[in-house]
């Protein structure tokens, strides 16, 4: 995921942490909050806490990452609890006024006819497979980060993702008339 | 030997995806047939997955940008006057003021405190900052005094005190490079490479030239004999420049100027005259086919190209690798698109279109030049409004949004034209801002989406209608309904997009300004002269 040059080129330690870890943490928060706005709110809280944590800069990279994830999970839980006590509003009533956050593929996809078959194949996947693909291609996360977001082991994600892509690739090959593919496999 | 079914392996899955994505991105021109079949299929899959999730990615990036700004603001609000960074010399901050206005996040952070272990040199920095800003303030005063004799005029108040208040650019409007004159002027768009290092221009006399943005060094001239260039555009990866002629689309190496690939129109018909080949686009009886405007998709895999065919036109979406038309956007009626721009999230394609039957009395005057927007997925026209004039960059998407800025030209009952700069939210089809300013059609957004630079007029003009003089530099608010009938569009005016307040006027040009572009890093603007007579130049100046 390409963040703006403003973040990437910034020299502060927090900017560095943000560049490295914010995409994965945000992806996690999106899964555990009810709206994009809430996820942004919690993300801000996490990194403000990072700024205010006096000894964070002295920690090693792994420790920094663990600290950020712990704070993100705690604050994510806090946000979830707060939401439980909110007045309920049917968001469907305001769907057009808020974000087009999860647009239908036919609206969001550019030149949809070129890969309509992809959407058809995606429907054959399990929810976990689709989520792994989403984190890989929408959030640009690597397997170790996807594992953090999904609460799985990295090895599990590697196997899951490679099998998913091989499955889709086989369907693509079939679509594209790779006649010998099936015979070989 | 690895089994084909196991093309993706758990051990190397990250590297495989990234390698394939890199191959699929940009405009790698290796013919598809030269790639291994197994790789082709995988690349096709990865490309489709990237595109499928592209809209989500754009939204997430926007969320991360917003959050970062809020973090900067929150921390700064609590901590007061000291610095967040511990690696940035204070003196550098002062010297970087020219770029700070378009890098608000960096600026905010530079004003933020350092705390705890992150910011161990806080007290030292604070002291140095205080002294540095005092000296900086003095330099600002001296510089501002000195610049009174230079080109341009600044209308912002110079802060002279040593505070963390945002300060104006010391070197704002400083011309860093002027091209050799072109006797026939610049047209066809000029474009910054996305890495802000190179600029491509089309001077009618000198042809397409690509040069280092701030020095003019490493200039290369693209050899395209006997052909007029319609438009130029850098690829997102800064490696290639797409050029359109009436008969061809060419992809040129941005460093060497060598033509790497050419797509030709299948049924081009070019007429000839004493002055050379031409395409009679404006005549309804023409059956010519020609490429006009070109715009890259943000992932670099497609080109949106305006194609004119006599009185009618279409916008074609071409697969860069294969040259195959992936889809076609219809242009209903007798219109041809002069400019085409893809929206930042790829959902929309906007174009400045002109009616090819200007003498047809059934076509209202305000529909001769229009701005149209298509939904890229459904191919439906979702927005139509009078505006643009096909010269220069007459429409521009606000970065990271679906808001479109363009200049409206409005005919007055008493004769003459008035202009206003309008910002429209395309998805909701609502006008967000409307500033009645004396503007030519050419404009550009600052990369942070806060400012708009447009071509303004150098002399107050009283039109024949009920207009009033154009606003003079220094006016806080634009004067209503300025007339632009006979003034010279040779200034670049920068306004705050949210308030309309004039921020700066660049007066370094003598001739009409035909082209304008803001560098992607926000540091410079390049403006070029054209559409008039005499020696015309392009200038790069600090913004």
General description of the model:
The complex is a heterodimer of chains A (185) and B (543). Chain A has 185 residues and is mainly alpha-helical. Chain A is built from 10 helices and no strands. In chain A, helix 2 packs across helix 8 (143-150) and helix 3 crosses helix 4 (61-84). The model of chain B is unreliable at 79-170, 266-271, 278-288 and 460-485 (pLDDT under 50). Chain B contains 7 helices and 31 strands. In chain B, a hairpin with a 5-residue loop joins strand 3 (191-192) and strand 4 (198-203). With 543 residues, chain B is α+β, with helices and mostly antiparallel strands. The interface between A and B is large, with 80 and 66 residues.
Task: List the SSEs and their pairings.
The complex is a heterodimer of chains A (185) and B (543).
Chain A: H1 5-8, H2 13-32, H3 36-52, H4 61-84, H5 105-108, H6 116-122, H7 127-137, H8 143-150, H9 154-175, H10 179-184
Chain B: H1 13-24, H2 37-52, H3 54-79, H4 90-95, H5 97-100, H6 104-110, H7 122-146, E1 153-154, E2 175-178, E3 191-192, E4 198-203, E5 207-212, E6 220-221, E7 229-234, E8 240-245, E9 248-253, E10 259-264, E11 271-273, E12 276-278, E13 289-296, E14 302-309, E15 312-319, E16 325-330, E17 335-342, E18 348-355, E19 369-375, E20 381-386, E21 395-397, E22 403-411, E23 417-425, E24 430-435, E25 439-445, E26 451-456, E27 491-496, E28 502-506, E29 513-518, E30 524-529, E31 538-542
Antiparallel strand pairs in B: 1-28, 2-31, 3-4, 4-5, 5-6, 7-8, 8-9, 9-10, 11-12, 13-14, 14-15, 15-16, 17-18, 18-19, 19-20, 21-22, 22-23, 23-24, 25-26, 26-27, 27-28, 29-30, 30-31
């Amino acid at each position: 995921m390409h963040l703006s040059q403003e973040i990437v080129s910034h020299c502060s330690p927090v900017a560095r942490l943000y560049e490295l870890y914010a995409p994965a943490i945000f992806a996690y928060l999106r899964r555990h909050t009810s709206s994009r706005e809430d996820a942004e709110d919690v993300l801000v809280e996490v990194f403000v806490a990072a700024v205010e944590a006096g000894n964070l800069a002295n920690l090693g990279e792994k420790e920094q990452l663990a600290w950020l994830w712990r704070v993100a999970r705690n604050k994510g839980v806090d946000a979830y609890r707060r939401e439980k006590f909110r007045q309920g509003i049917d968001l469907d009533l305001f769907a057009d006024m808020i974000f087009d956050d999860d647009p239908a593929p036919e609206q969001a996809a550019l030149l949809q006819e070129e890969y309509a078959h992809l959407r058809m194949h995606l429907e054959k996947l399990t929810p976990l497979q689709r989520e792994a693909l989403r984190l890989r291609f929408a959030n640009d996360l690597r397997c170790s980060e996807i594992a953090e977001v999904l609460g799985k082991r990295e090895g599990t994600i590697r196997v899951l993702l490679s099998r998913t892509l091989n499955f889709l690739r086989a369907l693509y090959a079939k679509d594209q008339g790779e006649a010998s593919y099936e015979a070989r496999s | 030997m690895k089994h084909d079914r196991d093309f993706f392996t758990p051990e190397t899955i990250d590297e495989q995806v990234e390698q394939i994505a890199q191959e699929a991105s940009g405009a790698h021109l290796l013919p598809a047939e030269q790639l291994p079949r197994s790789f082709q299929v995988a690349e096709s899959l990865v490309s489709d997955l990237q595109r499928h999730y592209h809209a989500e990615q754009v939204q997430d990036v926007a969320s991360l940008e917003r959050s970062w700004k809020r973090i900067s603001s929150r921390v700064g609000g609590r901590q007061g006057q000291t610095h967040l960074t511990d690696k940035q010399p204070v003196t550098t901050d002062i010297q970087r003021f020219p770029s700070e206005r378009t890098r608000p996040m960096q600026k905010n952070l530079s004003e933020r405190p350092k705390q705890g272990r992150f910011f161990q040199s806080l007290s030292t920095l604070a002291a140095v900052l205080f002294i540095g800003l005092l000296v900086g303030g003095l330099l600002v005063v001296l510089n501002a005094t000195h610049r009174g004799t230079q080109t341009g005029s600044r209308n912002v108040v110079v802060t002279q005190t040593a505070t963390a208040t945002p300060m104006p650019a010391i070197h704002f409007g400083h011309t860093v490079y002027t091209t050799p004159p072109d006797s026939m002027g610049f047209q066809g768009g000029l474009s910054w490479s996305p890495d802000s290092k190179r600029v491509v221009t089309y001077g009618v006399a000198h042809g397409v030239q690509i040069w280092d943005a701030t020095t003019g060094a490493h200039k290369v001239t693209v050899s395209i004999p006997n052909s007029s260039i319609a438009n130029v555009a850098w690829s997102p990866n800064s490696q290639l420049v797409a050029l359109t002629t009436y008969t061809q689309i060419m992809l040129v190496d941005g460093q060497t100027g060598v033509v790497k690939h050419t797509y030709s129109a299948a049924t081009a018909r070019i007429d000839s005259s004493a002055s050379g080949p031409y395409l009679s686009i404006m005549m309804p009886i023409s059956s010519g086919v020609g490429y006009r405007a070109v715009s890259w998709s943000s992932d670099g895999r497609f080109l949106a190209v305006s194609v004119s065919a006599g009185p009618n036109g279409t916008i074609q979406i071409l697969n860069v690798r294969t040259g195959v038309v992936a889809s076609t956007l219809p242009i209903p009626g007798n219109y041809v698109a002069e400019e085409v721009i893809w929206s930042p999230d790829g959902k929309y394609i906007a174009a400045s279109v002109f009616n090819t039957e200007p003498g047809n009395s059934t076509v209202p005057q305000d529909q001769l030049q229009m701005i149209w927007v298509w939904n890229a997925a459904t191919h439906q026209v979702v927005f139509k409004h009078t505006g643009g004039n096909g010269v220069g960059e007459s429409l521009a998407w606000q970065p990271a949004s679906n808001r479109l800025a363009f200049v409206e030209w409005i005919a007055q009952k008493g004769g003459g034209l008035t202009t206003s700069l309008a910002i429209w939210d395309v998805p909701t089809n609502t006008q967000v801002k409307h500033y009645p300013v004396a503007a030519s059609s050419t404009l550009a957004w600052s990369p942070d989406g806060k400012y708009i630079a447009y071509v303004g007029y150098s002399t107050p003009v009283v039109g024949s209608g009920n207009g009033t003089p154009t606003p003079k530099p220094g006016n806080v608010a634009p004067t209503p309904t300025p007339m632009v009938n006979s003034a010279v569009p040779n200034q670049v005016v920068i306004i705050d997009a949210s308030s309309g307040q004039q921020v700066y006027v660049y007066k370094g040009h003598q001739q009409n300004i035909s082209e304008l572009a803001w560098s992607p890093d926000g540091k410079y603007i390049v403006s070029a002269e054209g559409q008039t007579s005499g020696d015309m130049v392009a200038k790069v100046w600090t913004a």
